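1st attempt posting a full record on here, be nice pls
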Amino acid sequence: MVERCLIAASLTALSNTNTTSPPASPLSRSTSRADRLVKGVTQPIEGDSSIGIVETIFRSGWPKEIGLTVQKVLKVNHCDSVLNKFEEFRNKVKLNAANSCDGQLMERLIVDGNELLRFQGALITCSLGTNGDSSICYKKCCGVCRMIRSSFTVEDAPELVHENSWKAHEKVTNDYVAKRVCARRAIILCRVIAGRVGGYHRQELMVIGADGRFDSLVASDGDDSNGSDKLMVLNPRAMLPCFVVIYEVNCLP
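the predicted structure (as tokens):
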């Protein structure tokens, strides 16, 4: 748990670091908010320390015997309104915890809202990350662009994220690649305000908190040793995509 907290803190620092990008033209400075959101990612410059740190976090969950090549690391850029909504959700969780009579996990909730590092696998069906392309597309089948766009909306659809990148890879492989979808694969590293967590296990609901309220849900298939692999984030404002890792699997055991 301590290691995960340190990794989440590192990701927070990295996501708050400005990346070098070409100067904006007079035309781009006058574009609308909707147009600015389309340019949702930037590629860190060569030699940027954030690339190595993100790659290390990404590789940490994979079996050593699997050959893995990281093709590209992209940073997700957010406007102030998105960041403000994320922090507003954190403050709401902290306030609810401070006013609660339930002492279980309240200390962690009051400190940071129970922020975690989580991973989501997705397909890329557009040219994002190719030849310097940083444009976010509007294809429904492009999972990465859909995920990035969702952080700019107020949709209430829950999102499923994983404890490590290997589990996220397995999920996207089973769901999409097995259906013969031809696309590149990517893992999105996310900051998540998990808040008060409930859990499903063998069709039973277990909720932390006497009042039955929770902000996210742990889902287990019953074959996970700790039952905490999958986290269902119930409010999209609680999730902030930070980095996109485009990768290729070279060999399987």
